[in-house]
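Q: Predict the assembly, please.
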Amino acid sequence: MHTTWNLIRTVTCLAALTILASSSVMADEAANAALEKELIAVLRSDGPAADKAIACKKLAIYGSSESVTDLAKLLSDPQLASWARIALEAIPGTEADAALRTASEPLEGRLLIGVLNSIGVRRDAGAVAVLKKRLEDQDADVASAAAVALGHIGNDEATQVLRSALVSVPASVRSAVAEGCVLCAERLHAGGKSADAVAIYDEVRKAEVPQPRILEATRGAILARQQDGIPMLLELFQSNDKAMFNIGLSTTREFPGNALDKLLPAEVARVTPGRGALLILAMADRKETVVVPAIVDAAANGSKPVKLAAIGALARVGDVSSLPTLLDAAVDPDAELAVAAKATLADLPGKEVDAKITSLLNGAKGKMYPLLLGLIGQRRIEATAALLKALDHSDKEVRTAALVSLGETVSLNDLSVLITQALTPKNNDDAEVAQQALKTACVRMPDREACASQLASALDRAAEPEKPMLLEILSDVGGEKALNTIGKVSKSKSAELQDVGSRLLGKWSSLDAAPVLLDLAKTGPAAQYRIRALRGYIGLARKFPMPEPQRVEMCQNALDISKLAEQKLVLDVLKIHPSLESLKLAVKVTQGVPELKDEGTQSVVAIAQKLGTKGPEVAELLSQSGIGRVKLEIIKAEYGSGTIQKDVTAVLQKQASEFQLVTLPKANYNDSFGDPAPNEVKQLKVQYRMDDKEGSATFAENALIILPMPK
Amino acid sequence: MSNALPRRQFLKSALSIGGTAVLAPTIIPSSALGLDGNVAPSERIVVGGIGIGNRGTYDLGCFLEQNDVRFAAVCDVKESRRVGVKKLADGKYGNQACEMHRDYRELLDRSDLDAVLIATGPNWHATMAMNAAKAGKDMYCEKPCTKNISQSLILKETMRRTGRVFQAGTQRRNLPHFAFACELARTGKLGKLKKVYAHPAGMQAMMSGWLPAFPEPDKEVIDWDLYLGPAAWRPFNPKLLDGFNFEKGGGLVGGGVLEWGSHCVDLCQWAVGDCLPPVEYNAPKDGELMARYENGVELIFREKGWIPLGSCPVRFEGETGWVEAGDSGKLVLSSPELLAGRTVAEVGGYPATFHVRDFLDCVKSRSQPKGNAEAACNAHIACHGANIALFLGRTVKFDNKTNAFVDDADANRLRSEAIREPWRL
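A: Predicted assembly structure:
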């Protein structure tokens, strides 16, 4: 009982907190003060710890110096100290600082560590003496907490204490002292006192502390030295210690100015190929100052790992000056280099790159010619004339590259060129590529109606074998013209076009196909395609969001011309999209089609179960229809949560009738049964006998109670 | 299963003929990446896992399929999970080498580990990430990564100071369709950007609270004290063992705004160029919560009105175009011209494989992964700011220079929250 009460109180408090917060815009200081008084009273009471915890949480927002004394009293309570510090860290003013300092004196162990941590978070400059004393604590964890807190405070006094401690504290505390020193040094560097920062970083680097502290200090020492830190940074690249090399790489990315960039290329040559590749990546990440010719040179002349890294990096930092090297690499016999170079060439930034590629087309030979033609398409360069010229080339690879690029670049005005190539290619070998290129071009056309018009015109003049291909592309283009064209073809005299057209319409992915499909389903020339169209129509009703009355109307339209198989599909749609309207239609189908009695009943029950909030109307509808009429006996029913259960057998027995649906006397479970476990998630468990078979079912709170037929 | 799409298959798809890849791979020497399948021990990344439950097991699978990873240790406060993960790892390697730890500090003390996978409940993420960084480990940290604004800022600074590689579990940044959508917005292809939309899937503020006491299990079975970690103390109650939801947002357990926002707001942040977080957050109105960036772009959290593209949808609207994308792997564009000839690989089911690979590559190169600390920090601050507006029920204004709300004592007090002793950030 006590724990349940606690829970209720907690939930109530949380709700109140939210409400208070919501109205805080109008709350004046007096209201806050009154609330604070209430919360202080909770802290002073003999009430449960849970209440005091939540009061602390509220005081983090609404507390003032008035709360500090009572909060500080909780700092020695292992259960509530952490809650009290939530408030004490947040309450502004010197009172909270003083209270934390004072509270620290008698404490030890974890509770003391918590208070020292809070002092650090508040950066209480007045606590340096307190923390200095704790640096000498026998408990290394306490001393470490004091050291880091001093680091957060970071004033001159705290800094001096930490620098002295770095050589005097035991090894177990030294890491934390070094952490504090690094914090202080960072603050000094940010404040313009870089020389002081360097001194501290160097002290940490020389101290016997764990390597992570050395790495942090090394990074800081380089950055604080500013340009004078470059030699120290370059030295890291020669280190045998991988961690040192790594901190060099990350520090390289942070280092300001452009002097470093001029020195890094020489470093690439001084290290192993693997390290050189990583250095190239770091160089390229310095986007503002990177020396691009150095990356280009690495791409041309480096070891293979360096070349690969440099080629990849040029995609981010390269320019037109990178082009010759990348083009050479793209036709390199080494496939790995060639693939990398082609990827970079596609992304290499700059309009100048486009112009250069276009100009290189004239006179290009061998492997370079199809490479350049491919780049025209990949980079979407306007060069239709050059591409058309390439279609006359004797090399299929050249023609293929030109066609692919035409697909990527041709405009609506020139689309007829590709249509011609797709229908009557100069070389029969090119038909497939041309058709794919036409499709690529058509689906990217911004004016799809105009595009569809050109395709429709082509359809009229195309030979019969080519028409399915054009219809497929029309389907990919979509839109009104495409839809109507395919709809018309589907009712033509050609059996093949009827087949293709009805298939494409059947998988149409927008709702505007509904009337076309319904028309085809009603008046199509062949039975199998009428069914295909009808299924497509039902599929639209199933897949697309629309107002429920519209969906039910579509279902009714479909039912009007459906046979059994499609009627089942319609029932499925109704089940997936439950509404009162869909329920009524499902009832109608169930009552009107004897062969669908079982499946219909299942659908009706499934829809009804999903309409929990509309229980009374559903119940009345089911009652009127007689669907789900059974012989029912309630054996046992329990309502509750976990081990707290209430026997509600009598209530359900009274309500049970001759239907699978059991209606309750009141609007919800709690009002009908009483609430056995407030604020808990509850379930209703029912054991019953239906048509002489025993079954059981469990219902989430307030779910509609429809007992399934036992198997 | 789409989640298991092999990396090479993805790259092949992304590099398909006829269009420029949306995600060109970072070119790193194969010897460093171990693409040949024979990775020298010196090139392996030795990984430990902390808090490997449902999500963590999925993440772990992504690590285990990488040839250059050696998973060597697991830590969990629950014995059953420790044993289960050890069995999984040992089964993969055919040995008994995976060591088990109850206390993550033991795991972080190990000098043989290069990186850790942090997949505890969100209560621990920030504290553990910062402790891992101070222990010299790189980390893949599940989201939400922080419980409040202060933690977000400290996380960013700690990663910078320690030089660690941090990858938030925001794996959608490494999926081609989301990347492409963000690129369209970021590079002006939609015209001047006006609005970015995120789907919070439940805007509410709530807390884990203090539930009735139950008998505390043996420490070896479930270490309750370590489970609570930085969260304020409360008695053991098995309902609180749902680490996924426990103390997610600390003082303001952030419902969907933080849970989903750490993904979809993160994408919105990417779309606006990973700029600093919004400067104004309004209370929800008609199911929408509007925040505003300094440049006037609106970040809108909305529950309804999405094109059905799966969970975690985002939408970016500019003056001349828009794009919408979701977890189905599909995107919808205002005009096909926006594709500009590019092929966008359709990868549905938000797999983390590519994100894990990105992390591992950066562990080697020391570059910044897609879900780096700064990006994650900014996205999380946007979520926390929205939550504070939601909690207070009114507009709050944020100053990115001072990292404080403007003339708003109540909001400022919600920026941080003390953590339980002996933990510190």
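Chain A touches chain B through 101 residues (CB under 8 Å). Residues 629-711 of chain A form one domain.
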